[in-house]
Design a protein that fits this description.
Structural class: alpha/beta
Helix content: 40-55%
Number of helices: 9
Radius of gyration: 18 Å
Strand order of the largest sheet: 1-6-5-2
Bound molecules: zinc ion
Largest sheet: 4 strands, parallel
Oligomer: single chain
Number of domains: 2
CATH topology of the largest domain: Rossmann fold
Order of helices and strands: HHHEHHEHHEHEEHE
Distance between the termini: 39 Å
CATH class of the largest domain: Alpha Beta
Strand content: 15-25%
Length: about 240
């Protein structure tokens, strides 16, 4: 009975968006403002970063001394219990693709307006294991990346960097062990497509950066000329 009632609750939440598509993407409570995806209240508190005008920032600092990246930026700051956490959760687990689409469009526009970002040659999303993609219906980073791709007119390829086996538990491992542990499972196909090119790697959230680091190293090994990172959010 408990399971049924939680199912009905979840169904109700999903139904609200079918019936009222104009509700704010962040709080799901108030109507969107004109020309924006968020309500006035959420727009006011949306924690946008200044990464598109700051060459050294929380994202680039994450990778300093670990992997050489050209540009790095996150659109938003991630905090526990924040509207950003809710949006990322809904994008990843609640089939709310439009959240990734809207944030990708905003991030793409900021990239084009940025005085420091150079436009990449190709966009590659951090891969999710095919089993997980089948279960969830999509890779959230691909949804975000496709919207960035449309905004900056650069092709996205999700068949070059592939994840082949599930990542084993990372609990109790050092940073170095974690990186090795993750990098084993990324496979690079068609390296000729990235060889000598500026690759933009897109992800949903940068936390430890271990997964992204493994992706970047794989792309570097495959001959990418330079690598930049763009994520929806960064923790901290
Ligand atoms: Zn709102």
């Amino acid at each position: 009975m408990n399971k049924l009632s939680s199912y009905i609750k979840a169904l109700g939440r999903d139904l609200i968006h079918v019936l009222f598509p104009d509700l704010c993407l962040a709080c799901n409570k108030l109507p969107k403002t004109r020309d924006a995806a968020f309500c006035v209240e959420c727009l006011h508190v949306m924690p946008y970063t200044d990464h598109f005008i700051l060459k050294e920032n929380e994202v680039t600092k994450h990778f300093r001394g670990r992997v050489n990246i050209l540009h790095g930026a996150a659109l938003l700051r991630f905090r526990e219990g924040s509207i950003v956490q809710v949006m990322l959760h809904n994008l990843k687990y609640k089939k709310r693709k439009e959240i990734g689409e809207v944030l990708g469009e905003i991030a793409g526009k900021k990239l084009l307006d940025s005085p420091i970002f150079s436009v990449p040659d190709i966009i590659i999303p951090v891969p999710v294991h095919p089993k997980k993609v089948r279960r969830r219906g999509y890779n959230q980073s691909t949804i975000f990346g496709k919207a960035v791709s449309a905004a900056i007119h650069v092709a996205l390829a999700d068949d070059i960097l592939i994840k082949e086996t599930e990542t084993t538990s990372q609990t109790g491992k050092s940073r170095t062990e974690r990186v090795e542990n993750v990098s084993e499972v990324f496979v690079l196909r068609k390296p000729e497509e990235i060889s000598g090119r500026h690759v933009l790697v897109v992800d949903d959230v940068v936390t430890t950066g271990a997964t992204l680091e493994a992706c970047c190293l794989k792309l570097k090994d495959g001959g990418a000329k330079s690598i930049s990172i763009l994520s929806i959010a960064v923790a901290g």
